[in-house]
Write a structure and sequence with these properties.
Rossmann fold; Dehydroquinate synthase-like, alpha domain; 2 domains; seven-stranded mixed β-sheet; two-stranded antiparallel ribbon; 15 helices; 11 strands; binds nicotinamide-adenine-dinucleotide
Length: about 375
């Protein structure tokens, strides 16, 4: 399969969103020579796991710029998305004399790209950054689109910025070292695309999902290109999440983020999103937004793939309700859910009565 270059022109800012998807991609300086020509210092932000696994790849991709690149190692997983880690990376760049012409490369899962993207937006009010997602979830979603964040007070992504990477590079070669659990963490976001995307994307995902989750290289690469293309096209129509187009990407995330936070690290983001989608499906049935003729199809899509059980802490309704009221689109103390009408058609509903939300959580426990 050849490399696919994705270029999307943002309709409000005319900025071009750029990503390249493929396998064994050329060095970064070949993909974006202008970013390297102008860059004084370069910082590679990654985590220990990725550095151990991919040091040779990073060296190769940076070519003659490897010598002189400063490497900042973040904690692996959700521990990267803290103010402490953010300050650590910013202070590191300050001490090394980084300027506005410096370049930050974030290579890792969504935790690394979310944190490093935020650091890039803040350092001297913004420096160029390149996103190199290394997980399946990162390549189909987190590493693209310019939403960056850290967690705050136990709530997911409460402090962040919209800050586009100058380039996103999705190289399927990174996905070879993911274990079955890490691959499965991509299932939630994949099924989200199957429910919000057009018919052709849905068919493609449903045809290849099980192969991809088993690590089939061709299926993974095909789904990464298709999902990256779709995500960038939504982002380009609503970069700052203001018109409702981009909000579609939040399907399953209101409950999903609450489950992820309540599990205190036991439930990976992608797995929490799959449960969040199931919750949204049950709520859509309860509130009768989901057309009766579509209920079997949608349930089949969401319950057709294996999911680790939800930890008991996720069924604490009071804690769950507090967290869902932090949804950035809902007013203070209110809730807002994206619900399904049919695959490809989503609607937003505000202020759902707590009793209905509680009943849905109980129904989810019973399924
Ligand atoms: N910004 C966005 O639009 C967006 C979208 C979706 C999710 N997210 C965020 O992404 C985060 C989850 O990201 P994730 O699922 O990539 O997990 P992660 O970044 O937390 O990484 C999970 C683990 O995988 C390891 N890892 C990374 N690449 C690997 C590889 N190639 N081989 C083996 N191990 C590897 C990491 O070291 C880490 O231990 C969440 O914080 C979520 O909020 C952001």
């Amino acid at each position: 399969m050849t490399n696919i270059f994705l270029l999307k022109r943002d309709i409000t800012t005319s900025k071009t969103l750029r990503a390249v998807c493929g396998r064994g991609l050329p060095p970064l300086a070949h993909l974006a020579p202008e970013l390297f020509a102008g860059a004084g210092h370069i910082c590679l932000a990654t985590d220990r796991t990725c550095l151990n696994k991919f040091k040779r790849t990073f060296k190769k991709t940076l070519g003659r710029r490897w010598d002189g690149t400063d490497i900042f190692v973040l904690p692996a997983g959700r521990a990267a998305k803290t103010f402490r880690a953010l300050e650590g990376l910013l202070s590191f760049m300050l001490k090394r004399g980084f300027s506005r012409n410096s370049l930050l490369i974030a290579a890792g899962g969504g935790s690394v790209t979310d944190l490093a993207g935020l650091a890039a937006s803040l350092y001297m009010r913004g420096i160029n950054w390149i996103s190199v997602p290394t997980t399946f979830l990162g390549q189909i979603d987190a590493g693209l689109g310019g939403k960056t964040a850290v967690d705050l007070g136990g709530v997911k992504n409460m402090a962040g910025a919209f800050y586009q990477p100058a380039l996103t590079v999705c190289d399927a070669a990174f996905l070879q070292t993911l274990g079955p659990g890490e691959l499965r963490a991509g299932a939630g976001e994949l099924l989200k695309y199957a429910l919000i995307g057009p018919e052709a994307l849905r068919r493609r995902i449903l045809k290849s999902i099980e192969d991809a989750l088993k690590g089939d290289a061709k299926a993974l690469q095909e789904l990464v290109s298709a999902c990256a293309d779709f995500k960038l096209s939504l982002t380009a129509r609503d970069e700052r999440d203001e018109t409702g187009v981009r909000e579609l990407l939040n399907l399953g995330h209101t409950a999903g983020h609450a489950f992820e936070a309540l599990s205190k690290g036991r439930l990976a983001h992608g797995r929490a999103v799959l449960w969040g989608l199931r919750y949204a499906c049950l709520l859509s049935i309860r509130l009768k937004t989901l057309e009766p003729a579509q209920q079997r199809t949608v349930s089949g899509i969401l319950w057709g793939t294996e999911a680790a059980p939800l930890p008991a802490a996720c069924f604490n309704f009071r804690a769950f309700y507090r967290l869902i009221c932090y949804d950035k689109k809902a007013g203070a103390g209110k809730n807002r859910f994206l619900l399904i009408e049919r695959p490809g058609r989503i609607t937003a509903v505000n202020d759902i009565a707590p009793g209905i939300l509680k009943g849905t959580l109980t129904a989810l426990k019973r399924r």
